[in-house]
Design brief:
With 329 residues, the chain is α+β, with helices and mostly antiparallel strands. The chain is built from eleven helices and 13 strands. It has helices at residues 3-22, 31-40, 47-59, 83-95, 101-113, 117-126, 140-153, 234-240, 261-268, 292-299, 311-326; strands at 29-30, 65-67, 73-75, 155-164, 170-172, 179-189, 192-199, 204-209, 213-222, 248-257, 274-277, 281-290, 305-309. Helix 1 (3-22) crosses helix 3 (47-59), helix 4 packs antiparallel against helix 5 (101-113) and helix 5 (101-113) packs across helix 6 (117-126).
Length: 329
C-alpha cells in the first residue's frame, strides 16, 4: 500500500477528530483551515476531497454540520455532555477534598475538553476556585483502581492505614501492620471518599477513608459478603450515615422549629415525612446511625431541636450534653 492509499483511508478519521475537538456551532472551521490542520498531520487534501470525506462521514452516521458559502464552514455540535453538565462535573472535582491539587488540575482539563477546545477554554475561565483543603495522597488513583477491581472480582485487599500528626507526617495505625478486609462499595460523603467493608469477625459494616489508605493491593482470597440476615443495603446505608461515623442504626423521633425544614431536607432528602405540630413546630422520624456526630448535629440547633424518643437515645443525648458541659466546669 502506497502513502496516497494510506492517507485516503485515514483522512476521514482525522477530519472527524479535528472537527470534534476544535469546533462547535459557535466556532465552525473553514475548508482552508481544515486543510491546514490536516497538513500539520502530514495529510494533503484538496477542497473537493474534504467535501467527499465529510459526505462519507455523514453517510455513516458521523454528523458534521455545514454553513454553506463561498468557503464552507464545518462543525460538530452533538456531544455526550452539555456545557452545564460539564461545568457541574468540574465544580464537583474542585470541591472534592480527596483529590489532590495536581490531579484536580488534570481532571478539570480533561473534563473541559469534553466540550471541545473552544467551549472548554471558556468553561475553564469561568470556574470558581473552591477554598477546599486538598489531600496530598497522590496514590489515591491507584488505590481506587485496586479497590474497584477487588469489588468487581469479590476479592480481599490488603493496605496500610494512617493518620497525620501535628507535623503533617503520616502515622500508621497498628504500628504499621497491614489491614486485610473485604471491600463492599465506595461512598462519597462530606467531601471525602470512603471504602465500605464487611467485617465477618464482628458481623458488621465498617468504613475507611480512601485518601488515608496506602499500598493498597488485591490478594488472592475471596471476599466475605454481608449475610442476608444483616439486612445490608448500600442505598439505605448511605442515607443513614453522618460523616461516615459508625453507630447503631435506630429510628429516632425529633421535633424542630418549622423554619429549619430545609436543614431536614438537606440531610434526609425530600422523602422525610414531616408532620406540622402547633404553630411553629414540626415532627418527623428518621433512621440514623446514632453516634456523637449525630448528637453534635442535633446540638447545633440548640433549643430549636428536641429528641422525642426512644428513651434510651434521649438519655444518651443528655449524657453527651453533660459531658460537653463538664469540660467547662
Amino acid at each position: 500500500m502506497n502513502n496516497a492509499e494510506k492517507y485516503n483511508r485515514i483522512r476521514p478519521l482525522k477530519i472527524w477528530e479535528i472537527l470534534q475537538r476544535e469546533t462547535d456551532g459557535d466556532h465552525p472551521m473553514g475548508t482552508e483551515e481544515l486543510r491546514s490542520k490536516l497538513a500539520e498531520c502530514g495529510i494533503q487534501a484538496h477542497r473537493t476531497t474534504i467535501y467527499e470525506n465529510i459526505k462519507l462521514l455523514n453517510d455513516w452516521g458521523y454528523e458534521v454540520m455545514v454553513h454553506r458559502g463561498r468557503s464552507n464552514q464545518y462543525y460538530v455540535e452533538d456531544r455526550q455532555f452539555s456545557s452545564p453538565e460539564i461545568h457541574i462535573l468540574m465544580d464537583a472535582v474542585q470541591a472534592a477534598s480527596f483529590i489532590t491539587r495536581k490531579k484536580t488540575a488534570e481532571l478539570v482539563d480533561k473534563i473541559a475538553n469534553l466540550a471541545g477546545s473552544q467551549k472548554g477554554l471558556v468553561l475553564k475561565k469561568n470556574i470558581v476556585q473552591f477554598n477546599t483543603t486538598k489531600s496530598t495522597n497522590e496514590s489515591i488513583y491507584y488505590s481506587v483502581n485496586e479497590i474497584v477491581t477487588a469489588i468487581n472480582n469479590r476479592q480481599k485487599i490488603i493496605f496500610l492505614y494512617f493518620d497525620y500528626n501535628e507535623k503533617h507526617e503520616r502515622v500508621y495505625r497498628r504500628n504499621g501492620h497491614h489491614y486485610v478486609v473485604s471491600p463492599v462499595a465506595t461512598v462519597f460523603a462530606d467531601g471525602h471518599y470512603y471504602l465500605v467493608i464487611y467485617d465477618n469477625r464482628y458481623n458488621k459494616i465498617s468504613h475507611y477513608r480512601i485518601d488515608r489508605m496506602d499500598k493498597v493491593e488485591i490478594i488472592d482470597e475471596q471476599a466475605d459478603m454481608p449475610p442476608e440476615e444483616l439486612g445490608f443495603d448500600i442505598a439505605t446505608h448511605k442515607k443513614q450515615l453522618f460523616g461516615m461515623f459508625s453507630g447503631e442504626a435506630k429510628t429516632v423521633h425529633l421535633e424542630m422549629s418549622r423554619y429549619l425544614m430545609d436543614a431536614v431536607f438537606d440531610l434526609f432528602g425530600e422523602r422525610a415525612e414531616i408532620t406540622l405540630y402547633g404553630e411553629d413546630k414540626m415532627r418527623f422520624s428518621a433512621e440514623v446511625q446514632v453516634s456523637d456526630l449525630f448528637f453534635g448535629w442535633c446540638s447545633s440547633f440548640g433549643q430549636n431541636l428536641t429528641i422525642l424518643g426512644p428513651e434510651d437515645i434521649k438519655e444518651r443525648y443528655t449524657a453527651y450534653l453533660d459531658s460537653l458541659k463538664g469540660q467547662y466546669q
